[in-house]
Amino acid sequence: MTRHLLRDDDLTPQEQAEILTLAAELKTDRWKVQPLAGPQTVAVIFDKSSTRTRVSFAVGIADLGGSPLIISTANSQLGGKETPADTARVLERQVAAIVWRTYAQAGLEEMAAGTRVPVINALSDDFHPCQILADLLTIQEHKGELKGLTLAFFGDGRTNMGQSYVLGGVTAGMHVRVASPVEYAPREDVVADADRRAAQTGGSVALYTDPNEAAAGADIIVTDTWVSMGKEDEKLQRLRDLTPYKVSQELMSLAKDDAIFIHCLPADRGYEVDAEVIDGPQSVVWDEAENRLHAQKALLVWLLQQQ
């Protein structure tokens, strides 16, 4: 059966751990496996601009012996004359996998339904599972065992990153705290799904409106941009609403002494995080950015093995 990664809980806890283990191995030996040798082609489709996703998938596919085919929807029929399902039917006869950075989660679900090759969510409005795998790999490198760690996220909990931390974090057995205004909390159905997964792993999800309470004793402090792509017209309102959730050195001081700071980038220094934090000794954002490469390679290898 063809497997896809459309949201973080598409992976079981055991499967997530297998991918992270493989990612660590591939980081040590980048050319250990080359399942795409031939080279086979992977379609990498972009509705949104990108730096880390574009580079890490292109380099990773090449590392695996394959050829990345970068497609911009602005220069294709996808989203215009052609449906995601029809595009998938065309691509699946020519490529080994499809990676799509898009807006609506529904488009990814339509593309994956009945498709014979793996479809990977490289970012949607709802979830960002590839980034979470990279973040978990980074946390694992710096903290060892993931299970039982407390991760505190600050800002817009309803963004793709907030919701993926909730699902992916509890899948790893972590205790995930989301600090945000009530109207920016993760969707109720996502929290309910995370609670069900947490019952299997011993993890937990907790929602806070007080950022100081959320930071207290945390192992990992996380934030994301307050103005995601497509939300630019809401910038002033978001700055007003989310300013109390800025990650400052004062907030970091409430976490454990050895807490680390992560951010998926790009960052708006002075808005969601102060420069002294993201550029400081507790920040591991550059390890995190590199780990997109290793985590996505492991994901591709694992998905291709399920074929």
How is this fold's topology laid out?
Layout: H1 13-28, E1 41-46, H2 52-63, E2 67-72, H3 84-91, E3 97-101, H4 105-112, E4 119-123, H5 129-143, E5 150-154, H6 160-171, E6 175-179, H7 188-201, E7 204-208, H8 211-215, E8 220-223, H9 235-242, H10 249-252, E9 260-263, H11 275-278, H12 285-305
Parallel strand pairs: 1-2, 1-3, 3-4, 5-6, 5-8, 6-7, 8-9
Helix pairs in contact: 1-5, 1-12, 2-12, 3-4, 5-6, 5-12, 6-7
Subcellular location: Cytoplasm
Organism: Microbacterium schleiferi
Protein name: Ornithine carbamoyltransferase
Written overview of the protein:
This protein is an alpha/beta fold. It folds into two domains: 8-128 and 292-305, Aspartate/ornithine carbamoyltransferase (Rossmann fold, 3-Layer(aba) Sandwich), CATH 3.40.50; 131-288, Aspartate/ornithine carbamoyltransferase (Rossmann fold), CATH 3.40.50.1370. It has helices spanning 13-28, 52-63, 84-91, 105-112, 129-143, 160-171, 188-201, 211-215, 235-242, 249-252, 275-278, 285-305; strands spanning 41-46, 67-72, 97-101, 119-123, 150-154, 175-179, 204-208, 220-223, 260-263. A five-stranded parallel sheet has the order 7-6-5-8-9. Strands 2-1-3-4 form a four-stranded parallel sheet, with helices on both faces. Helix 1 (13-28) crosses helix 12 (285-305), helix 2 (52-63) packs across helix 12 (285-305) and helix 3 crosses helix 4. The chain is globular and about 55 Å long.
